[in-house]
Design a protein that fits this description.
Length: 193
């Protein structure tokens, strides 16, 4: 197209319409960046929670390894925990000793286990109030010794923790009712105390 040189209006500046189109394009881009930033913050927070859950479960596994006399005895087959409540059929883990086992030399393995589990439950409740834990211990297969006698079966324990976390929906197709969803997550660890 050939410009009219006599009319100076053709070669100068932007029209108001062009400026508005540029502002709309920039606004849409900024909204997309804001959504991505919110999603990144949400994902980072959830990843941090999952890491802390893994550390807490490893902490319980370490307590089981440290107190093998109790956990290998087969006294506990399973217990559950939610909040600060421990449900144990034998009541070994719910009854705390009066001295709090500050001097472990005078505590029985059952008392040490009760202190450890109660401390773990309180820590979990402080960090993850919506958690639920199920710990199940059972005897593994019997080991045959060459003298045809049977050795005591080792104990296998599974620790399963569930908790709820908020997840930010990426788009309208993944959102059911709102942009934020609450989902239940679970994590399991297997331990041989």
């Amino acid at each position: 197209m050939i410009k009219n040189i006599k009319n100076p209006r053709y070669g100068t500046g932007f029209t108001l319409f062009e400026v508005l189109v540029a502002m709309v394009v920039c606004a849409i881009g900024l909204l997309g960046l804001a959504k991505m930033a919110a999603l990144a913050v949400s994902t980072t927070q959830n990843a941090g929670s999952r890491s802390l859950i893994a550390v807490q479960m490893e902490s319980l596994a370490s307590m089981m390894h440290a107190n093998r006399n109790f956990w290998q005895s087969g006294t506990i087959t399973s217990f559950t925990a939610s909040g600060t409540t421990i449900t144990d059929a034998t009541n070994n883990l719910t009854a705390l000793p009066g001295n709090g086992c500050v001097a472990p030399a005078i505590c029985t393995p059952a008392q040490i286990a009760a202190v450890d589990v109660n401390k773990w439950v309180n820590d979990m409740n402080n960090q993850f109030p919506t958690y639920g834990a199920t710990i199940t211990c059972s005897a593994a297969a019997q080991i045959q010794i060459t003298t045809s006698s049977t050795a005591p079966a080792p104990i296998d324990c599974s620790i399963n923790v569930t908790w709820t976390e908020k997840q930010l929906a990426v788009n309208a197709n993944t959102a059911t009712g709102s942009a934020t969803q609450i989902s239940t997550q679970s994590f399991s660890v297997y331990v041989k105390p």
